[in-house]
Write a structure and sequence with these properties.
Distance between the termini: 71 Å
Order of helices and strands: HHHHHHEEEEEEH
Structural class: alpha+beta
Number of helices: 7
Helix content: 55-70%
Oligomer: single chain
Number of strands: 6
Shape: elongated
Largest sheet: 4 strands, antiparallel
Length: 174
């Protein structure tokens, strides 16, 4: 009886370790499938929209402040324009970070589902573990294109998309 209990414990431990290892890939695949199928309920369940919006607003404010400082040195009007842009930031982020916007991002790697009048092509994602309670999904880009990376955090036994790391060229193109 003791061997049976010990074997059961070891098996449970191995299954838990296997789940902890593969769950990020499963979570990313499930989220991408929900995006392809436009399953708003599944997207809302797998994405922490308030945390995601807060993270993006913070990143963009920092980038705008850097641009304003840089441009303000050479041309005060450009610096003032960059600061004015930060006033519109909340509304823009809130209108873009929706289940539909996130579905486009998950399928194409961009918040803009159409480019040059054609649907953006579908991309593949690589999963990178960053710790026991977090991982990043990084799109496989071609021609050196910079795509946003998705940052997931553990929520119980599942994962939630909590942040997006936007590459600097996307935030501040000259």
């Amino acid at each position: 009886m003791r061997k049976l209990i010990l074997s059961g414990g070891v098996l449970a431990l191995l299954l838990a370790a296997a789940w902890a290892f593969v769950s990020p890939w499963i979570a990313m695949d499930a989220l991408r499938d929900a995006a392809r199928e436009a399953d708003r309920g599944a997207l809302e369940e797998s994405i922490d929209f308030p945390a995601l919006r807060t993270s993006l607003k913070q990143q963009m404010r920092e980038q705008i402040a850097q641009e304003a400082s840089k441009r303000g040195e050479s041309n005060p009007m450009q610096g003032a324009g960059a600061l004015l842009a930060s006033g519109f930031l909340d509304g823009v982020v809130d209108s873009v970070i929706t289940p539909d916007g996130m579905a486009a991002l998950l399928v194409t790697g961009s918040l803009v589902p159409m480019r040059d009048g054609k649907p953006a092509r579908e991309i593949d994602w690589d999963v990178e573990r960053t710790g026991l309670n977090s991982f990043r999904a990084v799109p496989k880009g071609e021609n050196g294109e910079a795509y946003p990376a998705l940052v997931f955090t553990r929520s119980g036994l599942s994962w939630k998309l909590a942040s997006i790391d936007i590459p600097e060229p996307e935030l501040a193109s000259e």
